[in-house]
Amino acid sequence: MKYYNYENFKNDTNKLIKKVRPLEFEMIVGIARGGLTLAHSMAEGLDIREVQTLRTELYDKTCKREELSIFDSCKFDGEKRVLVVDDIADSGETLDAIMKHLKSKYSDIEFTSAALFYKKTSIYEPDFWINEANEWVEFFWEKDFKEG
Amino acid sequence: MKYYNYENFKNDTNKLIKKVRPLEFEMIVGIARGGLTLAHSMAEGLDIREVQTLRTELYDKTCKREELSIFDSCKFDGEKRVLVVDDIADSGETLDAIMKHLKSKYSDIEFTSAALFYKKTSIYEPDFWINEANEWVEFFWEKDFKEG
């Protein structure tokens, strides 16, 4: 397991900001919870004021397969280009479902995805990513606030 | 000017988590942008999955005084206790307007506010805060992602 500390995050997020900057997004949607610190940091770096969140949940369908539900409270108001960010595309199911949902529900908007990590076995490859994940990544926000 | 780095943030956020934990919140609303990293970190520490955002903007009303607009895309679904977080209550106008707005629009929900910094001259005192701000605070997210 790799502990991914704030310094790692800072360096990689600055790389990701450089990659996406030419596309000039008007809003960032951060996937809760893993994508929220990244959404904030990229919004600061790209000078984007609008940040909203999306959340998914896995429901156990009475002994059958699990189903992914998307809780979408996003409000768009004329935006043309929106950046969707998450920490990692691991299985890729969350990002895959969210990107399909957003592109179908808001077909006038161009959605682009970005993540810090991408696993080669993911069913979805983010449009922009920085690191290939070869082992389990423990992000600092998952560890540093459990002390209380 | 005080540079507030990640280590300062980590220590103070853990203190804030300890203070609010007994109240058992079901959702966190982070005020964009300054409250977003705090919202994520507290959600991890308190094990709260629901995180949404609120945003304000100051409009210049044709040479008269500025007016604060609240962009509220929050969706509530039976929550009883919601925690509203921001980095700092400086003038306090943002938090004051947001708390009044939320309490009046969603009168069935109990809203509680928390911030890392509170300035004694603020017109609004958060229910929970950690540090008194005596000088300008530069948060790490305002500085660390401007390198690109």
UniProtKB/TrEMBL annotation, chains A, B:
* Family matches, as SUPFAM superfamilies: PRTase-like
**Which InterPro entries does the UniProt record give?**
PRTase-like (IPR029057), PRTase_dom (IPR000836)
Determine if Glycosyltransferase is one of this entry's keywords: yes
Keywords linked to the UniProt accession? Glycosyltransferase, Transferase
- Where in this chain does the record put each Phosphoribosyltransferase domain? 6-142
Which top-level group of life is the source organism from?
Bacteria
Q: Which GO terms describe its molecular function?
A: glycosyltransferase activity
Keyword presence, Nuclease = no
State the Pfam families in the record.
Pribosyltran
Could you identify this protein by its name?
Phosphoribosyltransferase
User: Taxonomic lineage of this organism?
Assistant: Bacteria, Pseudomonadati, Campylobacterota, Epsilonproteobacteria, Campylobacterales
